[in-house]
Amino acid sequence: xxxxxxxxxxxxxxxxxxxxxxxxxxxxxxxxxxxxxxxxxxxxxxxxxxxxxxxxxxxxxxxxxxxxxxxxxxxxxxxxxxxxxxxxxxxxxxxxxxxxxxxxxxxxxxxxxxxxxxxxxxxxxxxxxxxxxxxxxxxxxxxxxxxxxxxxxxxxxxxxxxxxxxxxxxxxxxxxxxxxxxxxxxxxxxxxxxxxxxxxxxxxxxxxxxxxxxxxxxxxxxxxxxxxxxxxxxxxxxxxxxxxxxxxxxxxxxxxxxxxxxxxxxxxxxxxxxxxxxxxxxxxxxxxxxxxxxxxxxxxxxxxxxxxxxxxxxxxxxxxxxxxxxxxxxxxxxxxxxxxxxxxxxxxxxxxxxxxxxxxxxxxxxxxxxxxxxxxxxxxxxxxxxxxxxxxxxxxxxxxxxxxxxxxxxxxxxxxxxxxxxxxxxxxxxxxxxxxxxxxxxxx
Length: 444
Ligand SMILES: [Zn+2]
Hints:
Strand order of the largest sheet: 1-2-3-4-5-6
Number of strands: 17
Bound molecules: zinc ion
CATH architecture of the largest domain: Alpha-Beta Barrel
Largest sheet: 6 strands, mixed
Distance between the termini: 48 Å
Mean pLDDT: 83
Low-confidence stretches: 1-38
Shape: elongated
Number of domains: 3
CATH class of the largest domain: Alpha Beta
Radius of gyration: 26 Å
Strand content: 15-25%
CATH superfamily of the largest domain: Glycoside hydrolase/deacetylase
Structural class: alpha/beta
CATH topology of the largest domain: TIM Barrel
């Protein structure tokens, strides 16, 4: 950690754009060039402790440069660097009609003390903020990556599994994150107190993780068009349960469920109906990209035990739809038979493990968020698979209290596949599973 302390204090989230540009730089070398072209001017200013020479580009709107210089001057003054002579040199990148300007503060020995950055529109000379350039869901991505890095580093221990940790690292808080860039890595810093510690939280993020979030020739952040799931860390030693959602995707409900789950780094398994996947391909993609599991609940919800049901079609159609949505990048690995109904024939023919449940919330019957909450919290055990329906608004509403309550009770919220993997259970086609307790065989 201390190694990076010199690199902290990047001005604002504006610096994040540097990450984007750096990625593009690696991917499309022609797109970004240092546009310095020897057009360098310098200005000097003295702070109480240090004299600084600031180099800045000549071809850039002076108002923009002046406002940045002014900010740097007041910030350096407030920082009381012991060094006598500071050099502030710039890096300049242009892409499309946007200019990215980055000032590095270096002391006499060449040590980098700070980086400041800003963005402006080349034609209108308008100063831009990161928020002007990216979609909100980008912060969800950052939040997941940040949490994964902190958890896997172990630096926070138990404190990384609390509602406090999740509330202080949610998407909204990612707007305050600072960055330092080095080679192929971005170091993300968040100044926050968790469990009473004053530690500055630092997470490393490989820049290549960001690449799919930036379309070619498109500076503005878009949700990835194809599959690029966020990372999710699961500690196999800690208690965990799998929330499962049947009968969707239903646009508003499913998207709200994603938002409520993401708030607390919770991942769920969505047993989808094929005909609803066809209507909401973008929702399916978002479920995947936010780290949740897409599984099958058949194409149109028949009894698989009925003679008239075309089993082959009900098994295979959802995968065809998913392949179309993701250009072949995602696979269905689990099946939940409608009505939980299966027989010997289904067991013999199913290409997927049959996923049942150990905690039935009866949410479809009560249609009441509080009743759903109560049925979960009164019965939950480590290793449970919990049955919910994102078809019903009340079921999704219940997540507002269920998710933090489960976290407070010590549970990690994981997908069915994550649960089985953590418990060392290798699922087999046609075998039914309803839970994954520690050190027990979950097959029935
Ligand atoms: Zn169903």
